[in-house]
Amino acid sequence: MAQPLKIWFDPEGDFLEVTFSEAPGYMRETADDAILERVDAEGHVIGFSILQVSQLAKNKPITAQLGAGR
Questions:
Q1: S-S: 49 plus which of 9, 17, 23, 59, CB 3.0-4.6 Å?
Q2: 25 is in which domain, residue-wise?
Q3: What is the pLDDT of residues 13-54, one digit of tens each?
């Protein structure tokens, strides 16, 4: 059974978080300083966060491969 996707935005902190799973995990850096991936103990991506998300509207879109090369 699929778990619900959870999206949380903090306008004051300019921070967006998307979670695919409620499993315990930790944040890990990606190649883009604005994106962090949330991974479980086995390294599976279970979500991601974007810092300074309001900048996406002002600049070109950011792209990232989650779980790439891990």
A1: 17
A2: 6-57
A3: 999 999 999 899 999 999 888 899 999 999 999 999 999 988
The encoded tokens of residue 59 equal: 């600049």
Count Cα neighbours of 59 within 13 Å in the Cβ-side half-sphere. 9
Angle at 2 between CA 43 and CA 53, to 5 degrees: 60
The total domain count for the chain is: 1
Position 35 in a domain: yes
Contact 51, 64 (CB under 8 A): no
- Strands (E) located in the chain: 6-10, 15-19, 26-29, 35-39, 45-51
| 16 within a domain of the structure (yes/no) | yes
**Residue 49 in tokens:** 């966060």
